[in-house]
Amino acid sequence: MSKSPKTAVKKKKKGGSGSKLVKWGLKLTAVLSSNVVRVIVSVLLLLLALVILVCEISYLFTWKQDLSLLTQPDLGVAANLCGNFGFNLAHFFIARLLGLGAFFLPVLMGALAIRCMRRKGEGIFKMLVNILWGAISISLLCAFLCEFIPSAGYVFGSGLGGSMGVQMTKWLQLLTGPVGTGAIIVLLLLVWGILLDGRVAERIGSFFDRLFVPKPKTVDLGDGLTIAMQEESAAPDLVPIEIEGNDSEDEEEGEDEEEDEEEGDETEAVNEPDETFGEVEEPMPEDDMGIKIEVIPAKDETDPDNMPDDKWRQRYDPRLSLSHYNFPPISLLKDYSSSEVRVSQEEINANSQRIVNCLKNYKIGVEGIKVKTGPTVTLYMIVPAPGVRIASVMRLEDDIARSLAATGVRVCQVPGTNYIGIEVANEKPSIVGMRSLLNDTAFQATKYELPIAIGKTISNEVYSFDLAKVPHLLVAGATGMGKSVGLNTIIASLLYRKHPSELKFVLVDPKMVELSLYGKLLNHYLAKMPEAEEAVITDTQKVIYTLMSLCKLMDDRYLLLKAAGVRNLKEYNEKFLSRQLNPLKGHEYMTYIVVIIDEYADLMMTAGREVEDPIIRLAQKARAVGIHLIIATQRPTTNFITGSIKANFPGRIAFKVISSVDSKTILDQTGANQLIGKGDMLVLTGSADLTRVQCAFIDTPEVSALVDYIQKQQAFPTPYILPDYVPESEAPGGTSGGDAASRDELFADAARLIVSEGVGSTSLIQRKMNLGYNRAGRIMDQLHDAGIVGPSEGSKPRQVLISSLESLEFILGKDDAI
Fold first, then answer.
1. Does 318 sit behind a cis peptide bond, omega within 30 degrees of 0 on the bond before it?
2. Model confidence pLDDT, tens digit, residues 268-300
3. Assign residue 243 a region: left if phi > 0, alpha if psi is -120 to 50, beta otherwise?
4. For residue 549, what are the CA distances in angstroms to 114, 235, 487, 561?
5. Backbone angles phi, psi at 411, to 5 degrees
6. Among 178-182, 340-344, 407-411, 753-757, which range has the highest average pLDDT?
């Protein structure tokens, strides 16, 4: 018992002497850490850094002149900006010690000075630690430069790493060799970077995660926010719980159960698996044992009650899915303004006088004429004398054209006025470039959903309309009159105004050459069937499947509109953008889909009602769900443009046609037969009044440049996939022709026709048996399965494998017996 106090006294004495040293150290630290000392040290350190930096930079330019001072210091003053002192200082740091690392020394000193000056709470010991970090940084840098970069001459002594780097690498090479030295230096740099900044480790870890760890399924909420989804194998009703503490696992579980009982309703809400996604940490209070229990509940962040206020107030932006996409510049298009030709006053006066004289010959008086000049046509608006009927003037259309010795003369009533308009083609027309339309301020200010600028009117104003309001467009014109250029103009207008996340095209091109350029935009703007090899559809059978797929998509979208309680796509998207619809319930942002079908008459010839029926169905219902049709043909006859098509396509564009009958077919009136061609067209977009417009010109090189630019932009990883459509012949239990019971009822008649004609052609079955393309194609497949015809040979007829009708009847009778 007597030894214990002595021991305690000794310890107390030792502790007393140590405490004195600590007190003196604290006093010294307090003095050095005062604001006055801190500012003085910072300023001196900053000035020293500047002096060293000036010495080293000057040394790079004057070291040759001052080199003799090393052996003969009495020769004079050094050329260095800081004199002999500057030369010797820089020579020591650069040539003898640190090499290129010498330039990092003043940088680190300056950064340390600024840090010390700005942070009032840091003492002298903290500054010493920072100096140590700087020294390690420079040492590792010298070793790295000396190992991986060869010598740079005398200026940097033994190399870019200086003598320090040389000594470090030599010592390491003796131990591990050249390869081991490089590996150790790189490893040390990584460790140093991780210790210096913890984010380096996170970035390295994320890099390896991207390489080796599969990406979780995510739901895009917009604004750069994505929510990770649970794997299907994970139990949906389990909520992860993190527990911190030193007790055993059993005690932790017991505390967890007690906490669950205390929280009650909160735990029940956490464990509900109903359509929840996202994880938000919600800490729970400490219990009596000091154990912290942290529960991570799952919440539906699309629910206004659960989503944080700052996120809920932010609207969803569909363009964030391609945030780095850049719209094409106008400079890709040619500027035709320099070649613009103005109609001379002499031409206007001469035509006006001829019109007045012609009408006088038929005893029609004219009180006045007003003139509007356009790029290709000039409008002469006459005020007839009282009592003159417009019909009497319109009957003189051919006579007026003859007196003017001009083409493209058209007489019409000027809407909203008492003028009678006489349109006369200019002697020297001007080219309307696509660039001038897109640069128009009025068009740029439009708020159309699907803005289309297609040309300029007789008043030389840009003519634009909203395809979403048209809503479907019928385009017709004779060969070479500008129909294909008009389609390119429509597509270009939309490409310049709509983001890839807002618009998709379905392109049908039976000629295979008109729309093929846009195939490069597969992952940007095009939609296709799941198994389709090319996005631009050229095969008639695939056209039918695609149209049926679009009908399925239309029905699916109507179900979403019904669930959202809205009537059209615009209202639906407004709800989705304001985060009122849950993506996990099937809701998604609806993109507009524009279906462009070229050579519609060719499709009708080969497929007939198989093509027309889905087109009519889409035209009748698809407007409300953002699907719009544009069909073009060079044969506007009633055989192809039926009454059902015309009734559901209120928008019409007519280029020059051959006869007045064709004009009446497309426009329900004459006028298109009197156009001058080369893009001259009549446009009807819902109203009863026709507008004469000169279509904008966009050449193939311009289209190629536009497509190539967009192709280089950020794209979606996959194309927009349309719903899969399985025809009846390929569906389970369908009539594929594999056995006699599943064959078409006209199979035997078609077989006899093919064998008697000796030609295995689908079109032959269509014509002779008056069948649609789809059914004729199925029968041909059944004939192949039965061994009557050979496999498909592209555009050539199939080979007939049965030589006589007797052999065919034997095969048919045998199949019937089976």
1. no
2. 433 343 433 333 344 446 444 444 444 444 444
3. beta
4. 67, 36, 23, 18
5. -105, 130
6. 753-757
